[in-house]
Amino acid sequence: MHTSAASRKKTAKKKSKKTKEKQQPKVQQSNWRLKVAQQKLQVLGFSDERPSGRMTEATSSALKSFQKQHKLKADGELNDATYQKLTWEAFTKEGIPKVKGKEIVSRAAKYKGVPYVFGGTTTKGFDCSGYTMYIYQQFGVYLPHGATDQLSYGTAVGFGELQPGDLVFFVGTYDTPGVSHVGFYVGDGMLLHCGDPIQYTSLNSNYWQSHLYAYGRPPYN
To answer: What is residue 94's predicted lDDT score, i.e. its pLDDT?
Structure first.
């Protein structure tokens, strides 16, 4: 069976394109998220490489080992699933700057009863994000003031990954665009937040479930 000249030319082009693709080196990642991942690989014993924020063969190899152990796609790339699992496993092992999440909750609980003050960031009175910002600052984690900004500053986690000390974000709790409220997850389906005053409440209530937006974990590098 004979093939046409056009068909042979098309096949040759495909082969040539594949050869070029194989010859082209992988684009190097270089960002803060990769540096955080390298730190977590160290914490978990998968690497002794100094965190640089650049993708190296050693980093890719360490990522593959981590991915295989946790039944993720073992391609050596830092995708969202791998990054979230890395931060979760490292958090479970070391907490936030070697402080466990329960210690954050314990510190936050000391301010139960402090009144709500719009824009407040001191023990005389807090607003919701001023409260979370103040507590995390005591552990060396500096968050921006504002629930929306705090959401974009950390790492999203799923409900099944929630750890005491993680943040819970809500929308529509009052007339404002975007995220309107934030509080601490303390475990057992409970929230510790700056209502008026700072108080515990159940996340399972109809009100909070209807306004629930996301869960997040602040950076702890």
So the answer is: 60
| pLDDT reported for residue 33 | 79
Of 60, 39, 40, residue with least CA distance to 50: 39
Stretches where the chain sits below pLDDT 50 are 1, 16-30, 221
Catalytic residue selected from 70, 145, 193, 211: 193
Say if CB 201 and CB 146 are below 8 A apart.
no
Tell me how long the chain is.
221
Cβ contacts of 56 within 8 Å, gap of 6 or more:
49
pLDDT at 27: 34
Q: Which of 43, 152, 37 has the alpha carbon at shortest distance from 85?
A: 37
Residue 194 appears among annotated catalytic residues: no
128 among known catalytic residues:
yes
| Burial category of 20 from C-beta neighbours within 10 Å (exposed 0-12, middle 13-18, buried 19 and up) | exposed
Catalytic residue from among 70, 181, 194, 211: 181
Catalytic residue among 2, 70, 128, 211: 128
